[in-house]
Sequence to fold (111 residues):
Amino acid sequence: MHHALERDLHPHGHAFAELSLVTDGAVIEEAPDGSHPLAVGMVLVVPIGAWHAFRAVQGVMLFDCCLGQPLLRGELGWLAHDRHLAPLHAALLGEAPTPGPLQLPAPAAAT
Fold:
């Protein structure tokens, strides 16, 4: 889901895990492990049941991917056996610490 974040959001949680890609603007995310400034190209990892909040919203657009426990343990269960993706899988399930915001590499220049 691609949507605008137009105002600060009070602390809240979800019954699903969330991956949020910032596609425009900037915001500060508050979470149990502290404050995280987020800008374009950053991905936020929110485990199932974890709380977070947003403040200092500045023209933010997010692409959210919401993943329920049945999906993570079922169709996406193979992630637990991939050496690169297993830590992210465990974090999404709340079984390991979250990696904090992830920075995606800038797109390559068109040739």
